[in-house]
């Protein structure tokens, strides 16, 4: 599993589309920093990822007033500890910014 | 393939220093004898247009570096076919040694690489 990490919102440049294009079926995507604004974008293609393939960092959601919004979508929220565990489980991490 | 360094190049020429830095990463990897694979995505495709001249004063051209990659055994410049289509580009519009990839082949490059650097 490759963990792709996205730190900018959909619609802001090319990163979010490129991250999705690079992802194979077993890969996961973690939203951090401004990437968590994707929870607000219902039309974003990333929401079509299966459950368990899309994560968002709790702290960054909370900091942006989005703490209660992630559950509206197929997004699993992760703590910093879980973030570390995810990267340890991944064979490779790839940052998209 | 586990030793392979995949360098993902996403910036157009003269758009800051990212394109130059990505090419530096390719050359450094190659100089250390590592197999390096360049993947041009999005605006990075514009780095592959032939006939580019130097930009404004202080802006060095990157095309000469692209042209000499072959000397470093970097024989193939990969790009997603969809990104070319989206920019109105065909293989014939680009420098030699480019290879267009379908979506699955792009994903495979990431999985075959031992290391990935995104620029």
Give the helices and strands of chain B as they follow along the chain: EHEHEHEHE
Beta-strand proportion of chain A: 15-25%
Largest interface: A-B, 15 and 17 residues
Q: How many angstroms does the end-to-end distance of chain B come to?
A: 21 Å
Secondary structure class of chain A reads alpha/beta
Determine Rg of chain A (CA atoms, Å). Answer: 12 Å
Low-confidence regions of chain B: none
Counting copies of identical and different chains, the oligomeric state is: heterodimer
- Specify the number of helices of chain B: 4
Order of adjacent strands in the largest pleated sheet of chain B: 2-1-5
Strand content of chain B: 15-25%
- Rounded to an integer, what's the Rg of chain B over CA atoms? 13 Å
Q: Using the alpha-carbon principal axes, give the shape of chain A.
A: globular
Overall average pLDDT of chain B:
94
Largest sheet of chain A: 5 strands, parallel
- Number of separate helices of chain A: 3
The average pLDDT value of chain A, as a whole number, equals: 94
Query: Order of strands across the widest beta sheet of chain A?
Result: 4-3-2-1-5
What does this structure look like?
- The complex is a heterodimer of chains A (97) and B (119).
- With 97 residues, chain A is α/β, with parallel strands linked by helices.
- Chain A is built from three helices and five strands, in the order E-H-E-E-H-E-H-E.
- Chain A starts with a strand and ends with a strand.
- The relative contact order of chain A is 0.26.
- Chain B is an alpha/beta fold and 119 residues long.
- Chain B has four helices and five strands; from the N terminus they run βαβαβαβαβ.
- Chain B has helices at residues 18-31, 63-68, 81-86, 103-112; strands at residues 5-9, 36-40, 77-80, 98-101, 115-118.
- A three-stranded parallel beta sheet of chain B has the order 2-1-5, sandwiched between helices. A two-stranded parallel ribbon of chain B has the order 3-4.
- The two termini of chain B are 21 Å apart.
- The chains are: A alpha/beta (97), B alpha/beta (119).
- The A-B interface holds A 2, 14-15, 17-18, 21-24, 27, 92, 94-97 and B 8, 10, 41-43, 80, 82, 103, 106-108, 110-111, 113, 115-116, 118.
């Amino acid at each position: 599993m490759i963990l792709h990490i996205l730190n900018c919102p959909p619609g802001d440049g090319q990163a979010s589309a490129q991250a999705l294009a690079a992802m194979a079926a077993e890969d996961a995507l973690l939203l951090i920093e401004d990437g968590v604004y994707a929870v607000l974008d219902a039309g974003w293609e990333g929401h079509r990822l299966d459950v368990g393939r899309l994560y968002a960092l709790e702290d960054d959601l909370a900091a942006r007033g989005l703490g209660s919004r992630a559950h509206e979508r197929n997004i699993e929220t992760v703590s910093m500890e879980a973030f570390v565990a995810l990267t340890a489980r991944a064979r490779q991490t790839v940052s998209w910014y | 393939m586990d030793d392979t360094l995949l360098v993902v190049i996403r910036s157009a020429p003269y758009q800051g220093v990212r394109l130059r830095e990505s090419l530096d990463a390719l050359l450094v990897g190659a100089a250390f004898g590592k197999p390096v694979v360049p993947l041009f995505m999005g605006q990075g495709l514009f780095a592959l247009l032939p006939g580019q001249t130097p930009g404004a004063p202080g802006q060095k051209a990157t095309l000469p570096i692209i042209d000499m990659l072959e000397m470093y055994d970097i024989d193939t410049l990969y790009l997603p076919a969809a990104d070319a289509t989206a920019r109105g580009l065909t293989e014939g519009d680009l420098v030699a040694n480019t290879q267009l990839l379908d979506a699955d082949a792009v994903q495979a490059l990431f999985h075959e690489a031992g290391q990935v650097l995104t620029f």
